Amino acid sequence: MSFFDSFLNIMDGCRQREAKKKTGFITILILLIAVWPVCAEAAGFKMVSVAGEKVNLRKGPSTQYPVVWELGEGFPLKVIERKGSWYKVVDFENDVGWIYKNLVSTKPHLVVKVNKKNKKRVNVRSGPGTNYKIVGKAEYGVVFETLKRGDGWVKVRHEKGLTGWIKRSLLWGW
Fold it and tell me: E-assigned strands of the chain?
């Protein structure tokens, strides 16, 4: 075998090892992408929103438990536990309760989380930035449907039709 043949054999072996490394990396990446939603939900990262008006948030996982709060359409919640057909959830004020899983949706919503004590309202703007015109205002606790996200701003729509952009840091939800 010549020096040249030996060199080609060595290069061939290196290419095969590189191909195996790439295949292994791609396999791991695909598995991570597939498993991430399950892990996120198990870790309590799943977000849901209330699907209906006057939905009861209860003290425990059944209708036998007393109602803690009555929630409105779109109110965002973070799932922290699951028990049968019930979700244990937390809201933007860290209130905890249980909600029946058929009474929530995965449609993203946000709630205004700032200015509870001073009653100031946040600006809803025509575009994603402070240089855009103010088209409305919203108080603490007002819920919006999430339409679009970008560069620290979120395009939202209120149930009464007001549509505009709010700075993301002023909101809770997804």
Answer: 47-50, 55-58, 67-71, 76-83, 86-90, 96-100, 104-105, 109-112, 122-125, 134-138, 143-150, 153-157, 163-167, 171-173
The count of residues in the chain is 174
Residues 47-107, CATH architecture? Roll (2.30)
Model-wide pTM > 0.70 = yes
pLDDT tens string 16-44: 666 565 665 555 545 444 444 444 445 54
At the fourth CATH level, which superfamily is domain 110-173?
SH3 Domains (2.30.30.40)
Return the domain boundaries, the chain.
Answer: 1-43, 47-107, 110-173
Cα distances from 77 to residues 90, 129, 146, 149, in angstroms, run 6, 27, 14, 19
Q: Phi and psi for 156 in degrees, rounded to 5? A: -130, 165
C-beta of residue 75 within 8 angstroms of C-beta of residue 50: yes
